[in-house]
Design brief:
heterodimer; A: alpha+beta; 5-stranded antiparallel sheet; two-stranded antiparallel ribbon; elongated; B: about 80 residues; alpha+beta; 3 helices; 3 strands
C-alpha cells in the first residue's frame, strides 16, 4: 500500500504559475517588474552572488548589479519576490536574467533540502538505503522505515 | 513487505515522496513528518493504484457473506 505526495519547500511559493509573468509597468513606465515564485531573500542573495552579481540587502529590497546593470528585487504582498528592471533593459534580457537566477535559486533549494533531509531523517527512524542522481538532475533517495 | 519511503528532490525544488508497504494510517502520519523534515508543504497527495486496489479487495471481502467466503476458501 502506498501514498504519493508532492511537496514544495517553503522557500518557493506553492503557486500553479511556476514561470514568470510580466506585470504592469511600474512607476510611470520608468521601471517594469517580473514576478517570480521565489520567497527567501537569503537564498536569492546566494543565487545572485553565485551568478557573479554584487548584492546589497536592506530591509525593503535586494539591490544587485551585474556589470553596469542594476536590478532590484522587491517583496510583494503575497510574500513572493519580484525583479524590477529599468525600461532601458530589453525585456528579453531581463527574462533571461530572471530565468537563470531562478534556476540557480532552485538548485540551492535542492541542495539545502537534500542536506536537511539526510541530517534529520535518523531522528525519525529513517535509515538511508540508497541514493542516486538521475539524468534529469533529480536526487532520488530511498529510506527504510524503522519499527 | 518492508516499509520504505522513496523521495525525489527535483532540480526545480519540488519534492515527490512515495510511501511503500504501509497501511493507510501510517501513510498519513508520514505526510506531517515529511513536511517537517523537509520544511515543505504538501500541494498534492493521492493513493497509488495498488493501494486503491487493495482497499477495493478488502471492501469486497467485507461485503461477501461468510458462507460464500468459506466456499471460495474451500476451493
Amino acid at each position: 500500500m502506498s501514498l504519493s505526495l508532492t511537496l514544495i519547500p517553503i522557500a518557493i511559493a506553492a503557486s500553479s504559475v511556476v514561470s514568470y509573468a510580466l506585470q504592469d509597468k511600474i512607476e510611470e513606465g520608468i521601471y517594469y517588474k517580473i514576478d517570480t515564485n521565489l520567497k527567501d531573500e537569503n537564498i536569492l542573495t546566494e543565487a545572485l552572488k553565485n551568478r557573479g552579481c554584487n548584492v546589497s540587502l536592506d530591509k525593503r529590497q535586494i539591490e544587485s548589479t551585474l556589470g553596469n546593470v542594476e536590478i532590484v528585487f522587491q517583496r510583494q504582498e503575497d510574500d513572493t519576490i519580484s525583479a524590477v528592471f529599468h525600461k532601458d533593459i530589453p525585456l528579453k534580457d531581463a527574462e533571461e536574467f530572471v530565468k537563470n537566477t531562478h534556476e540557480e535559486y532552485t538548485r540551492i533549494v535542492q541542495q539545502k533540502t537534500y542536506h536537511k533531509l539526510v541530517e534529520r531523517a535518523k531522528n525519525e527512524g529513517l535509515i538511508l538505503e540508497s541514493e542516486k542522481r538521475n539524468e534529469e538532475d533529480t536526487i532520488v533517495l530511498t529510506f527504510q522505515v524503522g519499527e | 513487505m518492508e516499509k520504505k519511503i522513496r523521495l525525489e528532490i527535483t532540480a526545480t525544488g519540488e519534492i515527490r515522496a512515495k510511501t511503500i508497504g504501509m497501511n493507510d494510517e501510517e501513510c498519513l502520519d508520514y505526510v506531517e513528518i515529511l513536511e517537517s523534515l523537509l520544511d515543505a508543504e504538501t500541494v498534492d497527495s493521492k493513493y497509488t493504484e495498488e493501494f486503491l486496489l487493495a482497499q477495493q479487495l478488502q471492501y469486497q471481502e467485507e461485503q461477501t457473506p461468510v458462507e460464500q467466503q468459506m466456499e471460495v476458501k474451500g476451493d
